[in-house]
Amino acid sequence: TDPPGPPWESGDNVPPNLTGLKATGIRRGARLRFTLSEPGSVKVVFKRSGKVRYRGALRKLKAGKVRRRIKHKSLYAGRYKVTLTPIDRAGNRGRPRSATVKVKG
């Protein structure tokens, strides 16, 4: 009779859901707001003219409303497509969500 393990070891096969994505441009980056259905991380990709300009991750996020800023020296002024992919602690990937953001110089 072992005690139950952490929730991510119990055979979770339901992918997380990311909703309500809003991106606002700031100097050399963006302010991101979204809601996450379960704890985990989010893969972040900024593209401009079809090329990846920034790739990173937001880790150890709790379920619920999330607000984060992404700033990086490679994000110059201009329009970018930012794509967020949620990943829960069991490794399940949710549907990617995208938004357009105008980064300030």
Word description of this protein:
This protein starts with 17 loop residues before the first strand and ends with a strand. The protein has strands at residues 18-26, 29-36, 40-48, 51-61, 64-71, 78-88, 97-103. It is an all-beta fold. The chain contains no helices and 7 strands.
Whole-number mean pLDDT: 93
Structural class: mainly beta
Major sheet attributes: 4 strands, antiparallel
* Overall 3D shape: elongated
SSE run: EEEEEEE
Radius of gyration, taken over Cα atoms and rounded to an integer in Å: 15 Å
Report the span from N to C terminus. Answer: 60 Å
How large is the count of helical segments?
0
With strands numbered from the N-terminus, the spatial order across the biggest sheet is 4-3-6-7
Helix and strand topology:
Blueprint: E1 18-26, E2 29-36, E3 40-48, E4 51-61, E5 64-71, E6 78-88, E7 97-103
Antiparallel strand pairs: 1-2, 2-5, 3-4, 3-6, 6-7
Keywords:
105 residues; 7 strands; mainly beta; three-stranded antiparallel β-sheet; elongated
Could you give a short description of this structure?
This protein has 105 residues and is mainly beta. It has strands at 18-26, 29-36, 40-48, 51-61, 64-71, 78-88, 97-103. Helices cover 0% and strands 60% of the residues.
